[in-house]
TrEMBL record:
SMART domains: HATPase_c. Residues 192-397 form the Histidine kinase domain. It holds the Pfam family HATPase_c. This is histidine kinase. The lineage of its organism: Bacteria, Pseudomonadati, Bacteroidota, Sphingobacteriia, Sphingobacteriales. It comes from the Bacteria. The keyword Membrane applies. GO terms for molecular function: ATP binding; phosphorelay sensor kinase activity. InterPro entries: HATPase_C_sf, HATPase_dom, His_kinase_dom, HisK_dim/P_dom, Sig_transdc_His_kin-like_C. Its EC number is 2.7.13.3. It catalyses: ATP + protein L-histidine = ADP + protein N-phospho-L-histidine. PANTHER family: PEROXIDE STRESS-ACTIVATED HISTIDINE KINASE MAK3, SENSOR HISTIDINE KINASE.
Length: 404
């Protein structure tokens, strides 16, 4: 099993556990909610009974004391309305909104609209229970769920939300730590490689110059080939040194940069691969040519592998004026990439080739995103038909100086 398959399995496994824990927590709390609901129902029924009795025996002093004690201990929010629907008495409501000090004429803690709002909420939750009132008309007692019951209902969702937030933060923190670790390895390796290659390449150049003069072989094709190869090594070293430090971006015509590279690349590829560049041949972008060439090279090599060295590869350059962006679409007529792998192909180590390292696209993405502030992704792909990769770069707009 490759590391990506393993990682995916782990993700599924963790997701499965998260769902099990979440469901268990919801079911468990639901059990409590149901139990409390039953208890509150019983206590409301008791309240109604006592109230009914108190209305019948309201002139019995001793009985009134008992009733008062029972009522005070009922935490349920309750409102009683008379035969005209006017609020007659209440219980268990917020004391900071219901206290009206008659003597001090203090209205600070008295909010009449609050009662109406509470009554409205109660009517929405439970139908009122009718009783015979003092004047013989039908009065109603309303109640709503207690504060604790309401909180308990939302509790599992709040709990799950907090857990999810925690996991998300942990995930982001860990992946960014891992990414910066990867960054360090990339940059370190690249610097070291460039450094190590530097000395032998300089010596090789000197040797070639020496050979030319010693054997008087200025035009010898063999030596010319050697020089070409040394130049190639220099390009490679240059790329590595640029990856290892912050590269300078310069304003270039995208079309020209790509066609120059393809001229060079065509010579090293099978004749059966046909390259085409289409689209806007004027649009400019900020580029670092050696690094951008590396991007195109990786995409073209992958495309050539995908078409098995026979078919066509098209590069289309489009300017998106409104967004001030340049789209570079690299399309091949190769084997295609399954949709589920559109993102995976960019991960280091993912390869389907026998002799591949799976580093090409991850390096390509680094160059585009980290060094050019651009984007790269699989725009579309169909198995057996072909693939299009899209690079997006910021277009560089050149302002014409205006004379006044
Ligand atoms: N144009 C394409 N068409 C189909 N599959 C592709 C294409 N480009 C990339 N892939 C898939 O993505 C994988 C990863 O590509 P990547 O360039 O990162 O690594 P590689 O080509 O396998 O190895 P190397 O490190 O030598 O580049 C490839 O093995 C291939 O399966
Ligand atoms: Mg590759």
């Amino acid at each position: 099993m490759n590391p990506y398959e393993k990682k995916r399995r782990w993700k599924f496994f963790l997701l499965f556990f998260a769902i099990v824990i979440g469901t268990a927590s919801v079911i468990y709390t639901d059990f409590f909610v149901k139990k409390m609901e039953r208890e509150e129902k019983v206590s409301f029924q008791l309240y109604v009974k006592v109230t009914e009795q108190s209305l019948v025996m309201y002139d019995d002093e001793r009985f009134n004391d008992v009733i008062e004690t029972i009522m005070k201990n009922t935490k349920l929010p309750v409102i009683m309305t008379d035969g005209y629907g006017v609020i007659n008495s209440y219980q268990g409501l917020d004391s900071t909104k219901t206290n009206y000090d008659v003597e001090k004429q203090d209205k600070k803690t008295y909010d009449p609209a609050y009662f109406e709002r509470e009554l409205h909420k109660m009517k929405e939750q439970h139908p009122g229970t009718p009783i015979i009132g003092l004047d013989g008309t039908i009065w109603h007692i309303y109640h709503k769920d207690s504060f604790i019951l309401t909180q308990l209902r939302y509790f599992p969702f709040i709990q799950l939300g907090v857990i999810a937030l925690f996991l998300l933060t942990a995930y982001v923190a860990f992946s960014s730590a891992r990414r910066s670790e990867q960054d360090q390895v990339w940059v370190g390796m690249a610097k070291e490689t460039a450094h190590q290659l530097g000395t032998p390449i300089s010596s090789l150049m000197a040797w070639v110059e020496l050979m030319k003069s010693r054997f008087d072989a200025e035009d010898d094709p063999l030596i010319a080939e050697m020089e070409n190869d040394i130049k190639r090594l220099e390009v490679i070293t240059d790329r590595f040194s640029k990856i290892g430090s912050k590269p300078v971006l310069e304003d270039h015509v995208v079309y020209t940069v790509i066609s120059n590279f393809i001229q060079y690349f065509q010579l090293r590829t099978s004749d059966k691969v046909i390259f085409k560049i289409t689209g806007d041949d004027q649009v400019r972008a900020l580029l670092n040519v050696p690094l951008f060439d590396w991007v195109i090279e990786n995409l073209l090599k992958n495309a050539a592998n995908a078409i098995e060295n026979e078919g066509s590869i098209t590069i289309n350059i489009i300017e998106h004026l409104a967004k001030e962006e340049v789209f570079i679409d690299v399309t091949d007529s190769g084997k295609g990439i399954p949709r589920s792998k559109f993102d995976t192909v960019f991960q280091p180590g993912y390869t389907t080739r026998k002799r591949g390292w799976g580093l090409g696209l991850s390096l390509t993405r680094r160059i585009v995103e980290n060094y050019h502030s651009g984007q790269i992704y699989v725009k579309e792909s169909e198995l057996g038909k072909g693939t299009t990769f899209r690079i997006i770069l910021k277009s560089s707009i050149t302002y014409e100086p205006t004379s006044t």
